[in-house]
Write a structure and sequence with these properties.
Number of helices: 14
Mean pLDDT: 80
Strand content: 5-15%
Number of strands: 11
Radius of gyration: 23 Å
Order of helices and strands: HEEEEEEEHEEHHHHHHHHHHEHHE
Helix content: 40-55%
Distance between the termini: 35 Å
Length: about 425
C-alpha cells in the first residue's frame, strides 16, 4: 500500500461517499427544479438522449431547464425520464430538441414485484422523477440546443447505423455489428440477447471498454509491424492508439463508459513514458480518484465499476501475460493478448456479475476464450467496411467476409447456449 500512496486518499474518499449517500436522500443539486415547480406549471425540457422504445412507450432522458412563473420563464436544472405513447409523434424528437409541457412530475418508485431497488439506482444518477406525457400535451419549441459536439457525434453514429442497416448483411448480422461497434441494442431480437447473456457475452453486444481495447490492441500490433519494432516510434504508436480510442468514442456517440475507458487507457499508455517509477495500477487509481472528485456518485455506477475492475484485472495479470506472450510466435500474439485480457477481466468482474444479476454463466471462460480473440478481427472488419464499403469489389469482399464472420460468431454462441446448465440462476 505504501508503494501506492494514492490509496490513503482513495479509500477514505470512497468510504465518505458511501456514508453520505446512505444517510442523505439526495446529493445537493443547485437550483433544482423540485424547489420551484408546482402542479400545472409549464416547464421546458431539453431532450438529452435518443429514443428508447418499449412495447407501449417511447422514453427519453431530459433536463428541465426553465419553468414558467407568472409570465416569466425562470432557469432551473435537473434530469428526468420522460415517456410518450408510441402512438404519439414523439418519434420525431432528437437530441437537442426543447419541448414545453405541464405534465405532472411523478416520483420514481420501485417496480411492482421486483426485488431490484430501481428508485435508488436512478437516484444515484440524480434522476428522481418520471414524466408521462399525454398525446397533445406537449409542444416542441426549439431544436439543436444540445452540446454541439455530442450532437455531431450522434449524427455520425446515426449515419453509420444506416449504412450497416442498408447493407447486404443479414438482419441479425447488421444488428450484431451495430451493437458491437456503436452500442445500440434496439435492433436485437430478444432471443439473441438471451443467448449472449447465457454465454456470459453481453459485454460484446454493446460498445464497451473491452471492445475499444481490442480494437486498439490490433491497431497497435499493425503499427508495430510497420515500425519494425523501432523503439523511437513506440511513443508515436501509443499517441496514435490514444487518438484512435477517442475517435471511437466520438463515432459511438461519446458514450460515457467508453470515454472513461479511453481516459484510463490514455493515462496508462502515456504515463509509462514520463519519468521513472511508472506504475500502471497507480495510474489507474489516480484516474479513478479524479473521476470520483468530479462526480462522487459515479462510485455506484455499474459501468464504472465494471470498467475499473476489468482494467484492474488486466493490469494485475499483465506481467504474467507478457511472460506467456514472449514464448509464442509473433503471428498468434494478438490473439493470445485478447484471450488473456478477457480472462483477466472476467476473473475480476465475475463476482460483480453474480452479485448484481444473480446468475452464473457456466461457460463464460470458454465462450470468452473462443469469441474475444475472434471479436478483435470482426471489430476491425466492421470499421474497414464502414470506411471502404462503397469501393467497388474491395467493399463487396469486405462485406461478404464480415457477413460470414458474424454468422460464425452467432453459431458459436448458439452452440454454447445449447450446452447443459449453460447458466445457473440464484
Amino acid at each position: 500500500m505504501f508503494k501506492r500512496p494514492i490509496l490513503f486518499i482513495l479509500i477514505p474518499l470512497c468510504l465518505i461517499i458511501i456514508l453520505v449517500e446512505a444517510y442523505s436522500s439526495v446529493f445537493f443539486i443547485r437550483n433544482h427544479y423540485s424547489k420551484h415547480i408546482d402542479k400545472d406549471m409549464y416547464y421546458k425540457v431539453l431532450i438529452k438522449s435518443q429514443p428508447i422504445e418499449s412495447k407501449k412507450t417511447i422514453k427519453y432522458k431530459g433536463e428541465i431547464t426553465y419553468y414558467l412563473s407568472g409570465n416569466i420563464w425562470h432557469s432551473t436544472t435537473g434530469d428526468i425520464m420522460i415517456y410518450f405513447s408510441k402512438t404519439d409523434s414523439a418519434h420525431s424528437l432528437n437530441y437537442g430538441d426543447i419541448i414545453t409541457t405541464n405534465s405532472p412530475l411523478l416520483e420514481i418508485e420501485n417496480r411492482y414485484g421486483s426485488s431490484f431497488d430501481y428508485k435508488k439506482f436512478m437516484q444515484r444518477q440524480r434522476i428522481y422523477d418520471n414524466v408521462f406525457v399525454k398525446s397533445g400535451n406537449w409542444k416542441r419549441v426549439d431544436r439543436n440546443k444540445g452540446n454541439w459536439l455530442i450532437a455531431s457525434s450522434r449524427k455520425v453514429k446515426l449515419n453509420l447505423e444506416n449504412k450497416l442497416l442498408n447493407s447486404n448483411l443479414g438482419k441479425n448480422e447488421s444488428a450484431l455489428a451495430i451493437g458491437m461497434l456503436l452500442g445500440d441494442k434496439a435492433y436485437f431480437d430478444q432471443e439473441v440477447i438471451r443467448q449472449f447473456t447465457s454465454a456470459g457475452l453481453t459485454h460484446i453486444l454493446c460498445v464497451s471498454g473491452m471492445n475499444v481495447a481490442l480494437i486498439i490492441i490490433v491497431i497497435d500490433f499493425l503499427l508495430k509491424l510497420l515500425s519494425m519494432g523501432n523503439y523511437r516510434l513506440i511513443i508515436w504508436r501509443k499517441i496514435i492508439a490514444v487518438i484512435i480510442s477517442f475517435a471511437i468514442c466520438f463515432i459511438v456517440g461519446l458514450n460515457p463508459s467508453v470515454l472513461r475507458v479511453a481516459i484510463m487507457m490514455s493515462v496508462i499508455l502515456l504515463t509509462k513514458y514520463i519519468g521513472r517509477g511508472y506504475d500502471s495500477i497507480n495510474s489507474l487509481l489516480v484516474t479513478a480518484f479524479i473521476f470520483l472528485c468530479l462526480d462522487p456518485l459515479i462510485l455506484f455506477n455499474w459501468s464504472f465499476q465494471f470498467s475499473f475492475l476489468a482494467v484492474l484485472g488486466i493490469l494485475i495479470f499483465g506481467k504474467y501475460l507478457a511472460q506467456i506472450k514472449s514464448m509464442l510466435h509473433w503471428s498468434v500474439k494478438p490473439f493470445a493478448s485478447a484471450a488473456g485480457m478477457t480472462i483477466s477481466a472476467q476473473l475480476f468482474v465475475m463476482p460483480l456479475i453474480i452479485s448484481r444479476f444473480r446468475y452464473f454463466p457456466t461457460y463464460t471462460i470458454l465462450a470468452n476464450i473462443i469469441i474475444v480473440p475472434f471479436l478483435s478481427i470482426v471489430l476491425v472488419n466492421i470499421i474497414l467496411f464502414l470506411i471502404i464499403g462503397d469501393v467497388p469489389l474491395i467493399g463487396t469482399v469486405t462485406e461478404t467476409l464480415l457477413n460470414y464472420e458474424l454468422l460464425a460468431m452467432q453459431k458459436v454462441i448458439t452452440w454454447i447456449d445449447s450446452l447443459p446448465y449453460s447458466n445457473i440462476k440464484f
